Amino acid sequence: MPPVLFDPDHRLWLLRGPTTAYAIRLADDDTVRHVHWGATLTLTEAVKVAERISPAASSFEAVAAVDELAVEGGARFGPPSLLVRFADGTRGVQWRYAGHDVDGGHLRIRLHDRHYPLRLTLHYRVCADSDVIERWTTVENHDDRTPITVLRCDSAAWAAPHRTDYRVSHLVGGWNSEFQLRRTDVAVAETVFTSRRGVTSHHANPWLAVDDGTAGEEHGEVWSTALAWSGSWRITLHRDPVGRTTWTGGFGHEGLTWSLAPGEALDTPVFAGLYTAGGFGAASRAWHGYVRRHVLSHPNETRPVLYNSWEATGFDVDEVGQIALAARAASLGVELFVMDDGWFGARTGDHVGLGDWVPNPVRFPNGLRPLAAEVRRLGMRFGLWVEPEMVNPDSDLYRAHPDWVLHMTNRDRTELRNQLVLNLGRPDTAEWTHAWLDRLVAAHDIDFLKWDANRPFTEAGWPGHGDPDRLWIEHTRAVYRIMDRLRADHPGLRIEACAGGGGRADLGILARTDQVWTSDNTDPVDRIDIQHGFSQLYPAQVMGAWVTDSPNAATARETPLRFRFHVAMAGVLGIGGDLAAWTDDELKEAVELIAAYKRIRPVVQHGTAYRLRGDGTLTAVQYAHGDEHVVLAWCPTRPYGHATAPLRLTAVRPEVVYRDTDTGATYAGAVLLGSGLPLDLPSGDHASTLVHLRPVG
Ligand code: GLA
């Protein structure tokens, strides 16, 4: 069965994923209307659904059918997805259908304005191995003389079917507290989720999930969407008092205006949508599968255990100190050594040197070669921290090119962390940035870059440019292009996305990076929540998680090493502590725990994730890979000193007997599903355990 079907009599398209269907139709006025998003149905059934959509009830109501990409004009009063103004002052659009074509799972529907030279293509892409539907749009100015003003150009609008109630799940946070999952009733209002910061942001992540208020981790219908964009974005969720819940989203925040030059076409990023019937857990697993198969470039590669110097040394890095850390890291079993901030220019603190990407001659008198060589001799790969989009005013770069930063005439240049943002929308700035990165990677055969961005945009102007708001698009596109080019020219290079921790995690950046620095917060208790939120959309194999020192640098909380490890082992394990200060006992324990991680790593990084909740404060993650299972369970506090009840597992086969690879204990799958896995948790707070189960025989 082809993935896209068309019924010419009813002008209806049906897109099919493995277990779901999405239907749209062309209305009499040639607008594309939503019909169905949910369980599989046939073309005939979809036609019936379309015919049942009733006309508007009164002159005060919008039409009952939902637009696939609402424009301004006609009886439309909800948030528009496409807002344009033509040179003569006319706003709004009236479409004429101009045809469609299907290329495998890619459907393009072409619409032309009836009078003006505006053309639109609605893109839909489905594939045989995922229920995720990718949608985006192309707007084109077909005139050869006059620009068109674009006030909004979203990638897609989505609609949940009629329900009595609607609830939205989304991710909020701040620096050090990213990915906090919130679930709230959808207000009868327009609710805006947005970043005006030029990066995805710590504060909101461009993912949301809508359900009718009854879905749980393992049951219920969930409609979720994620925008693949790493700059400013906006998603407007609209619950109509008499109608449906819909949401429209795309790049840019409100108030930006773009000019579509004569002959120009603008492609929006992908806004992907997923319907699942098995609760929030099934939604996450389907997203994880999609990210692996359709977003990441190296999904089958096992991410190395890394060491990062930041929490150990701060800006105080030099050849001798880093070599000493590297030796300790290697002796623990670390596979990739990453030197963080402080290695370049006059960078002795966050006030100076950013932008001067040459090794500091005092700290690295012979350049980076001796360190890189020693790291490799120790059997590790070598990585470096960079922050290519930023500059300290106190730097040679800024002194030479004060006009390269985002700025506005007659406005102060707001400094955050003593730095300004380079305008990578400028071809010269972008070219320079690519050139030094390319030289750096080539000169030292760099295996890994931690690509940071430590402040949002302010005074985001582009003096002298005729369409200055373009920088909100062009900067992000330039970041993408530089990463893509570096990766194409240096196939061994892997990149970690970071923006002061998890400020730039999204499907757009994941298409050109390999993992995300989830949060600067490495406190394992806080991390349980952060990782829970992160896992809603992103798989464990991209979730960077370090073990650092106790008490924690940010929260001052003291936790046992084992607990810190067990939390970090749920993702891509890294070590970020000051190894020079770890005791022999700690180092010995770390060796064992890193070795244990390497044993479970294929299951964690390539398996399927199930979020489990035990009783009291116990939470756990179970990873399943074939018939192998890994359970990581954490109990931050133990109120009343009560023992924890056995933890009921999922996804094990009832008829199979499993052996705990550590203790040798065996359990029938039916028992693990029914009464649960008894957990051998130490007493007291910050108790945790790791259980690795393999079938017997
Ligand atoms: C950001 C990152 C940290 C570290 C510092 C270095 O805050 O999130 O991990 O790299 O920058 O300045």
TrEMBL record:
What UniProt keywords are attached to this protein's entry?
Glycosidase, Hydrolase
User: Matching SUPFAM superfamilies, A to Z?
Assistant: (Trans)glycosidases
The keyword Glycoprotein is annotated on this UniProt entry: no
* Name under which the protein is recorded: Alpha-galactosidase
User: Residues in domain Glycosyl hydrolase family 36 N-terminal?
Assistant: 32-261
Cite the Gene3D superfamilies for this sequence.
Aldolase class I (3.20.20.70), alpha-galactosidase from lactobacil brevis (2.70.98.60), Golgi alpha-mannosidase II (2.60.40.1180)
Give EC number(s), comma-separated. 3.2.1.22
* Enzyme class of the recorded protein, top EC level: hydrolase
**Chain positions recorded as substrate binding sites:** 175, 340-341, 417, 450-454, 498, 520
Species source reads Micromonospora sicca
Query: What is a biological process (GO) this protein takes part in?
Result: carbohydrate catabolic process
Matches recorded under Pfam families: Glyco_hydro_36C, Glyco_hydro_36N, Melibiase
The UniProt entry, under InterPro entries, shows: Aldolase_TIM, Alpga-gal_N_sf, Alpha-glycosidase_related, GH, Glyco_hydro_36, Glyco_hydro_36_C, Glyco_hydro_36_N, Glyco_hydro_b
Which GO molecular-function terms appear in the entry? alpha-galactosidase activity
Coiled-coil positions: none
